Input
Amino acid sequence: MIKDNVVIITGASAGIGEATAKLLASKGAKVVLGARREDHLKRITDDITAAGGQAVYQVLDVTVQDDNDRIVQLAKDTFGGVDSIFLNAGLMPSSPLSAMKTDEWHRMVDVNIKGVLNGVAAVLPTFVEQKSGHVLAVSSVAGLKAYPGGAVYGGTKWFVRDFMEVLRMESALEGTNIRTATLYPAAINTELLTTMTDKASREQMEGLYDTYGIAPERIADVVAFAMDLPDDTTVNEFTVGPANQPW
Ligand SMILES: NC(=O)c1ccc[n+]([C@@H]2O[C@H](COP(=O)([O-])OP(=O)(O)OC[C@H]3O[C@@H](n4cnc5c(N)ncnc54)[C@H](OP(=O)(O)O)[C@@H]3O)[C@@H](O)[C@H]2O)c1
Output
């Protein structure tokens, strides 16, 4: 249930994370925001508080385990516990492999894969001990379908799919009652394309988003739906995108 749910949101300074933080807080969740840009986090936290919600933030780089551990502690110190984590931080500097943007390959692995591992490592002992918890993660349609230019980004998102499914299975087998939800968004209008440095790839993607993109609040609605289901119910997979986007 959303009301009084203490939820950590990574990548909460923009886009899907910001929209989700605001929506969940408006429904009574206690939101704990993490990302690198403090000015954005402060503005969003102030907005939520001014609207009557409960929010706190911490500067967080998901690639740093200690940052992830500290935000879990912040949730406990501020709100008395942690019920959910929304693993949303990510970037998409896609390009053809022949462009040899190897630094960006490694950066995507660090943020999109290791960031998810670090977040789960930070909450899992608590969730196992309390025999409850909800792990929600953002994969992508790029985690379901291969396409030129998306080898590494798609690979990181395929990882999220496998990881979340095994987390679900092991939690069920071990009786820890940890719920999971994996989201596979298509074109959502956020800052994501600003992470693309390959000019041709970016222009192609901008054309797609200009044609089809929908608002990040649509993803927030799905997160809220998953969280609001009873504790005995997991809906593990949500593919969400513009109604008129063919793939
Ligand atoms: N937009 C789409 O069409 C789409 C489609 C499928 C999947 N997704 C996924 O959705 C998620 C959210 O992206 P978005 O579309 O909302 O893009 P966005 O507007 O660019 O937001 C990305 C968020 O991730 C944060 N972030 C990036 N690196 C980080 C790091 N090292 N540590 C902590 N936070 C970090 C950013 O905050 P700071 O820069 O302040 O750290 C920002 O808050 C990503 O995982 C993305 O892959 C998006």
User: Anything to note?
Assistant: Residues 6-239 form a domain with the Rossmann fold fold (CATH 3.40.50.720). The beta strands are 6-10, 30-35, 54-59, 84-87, 133-138, 178-185, 237-240.
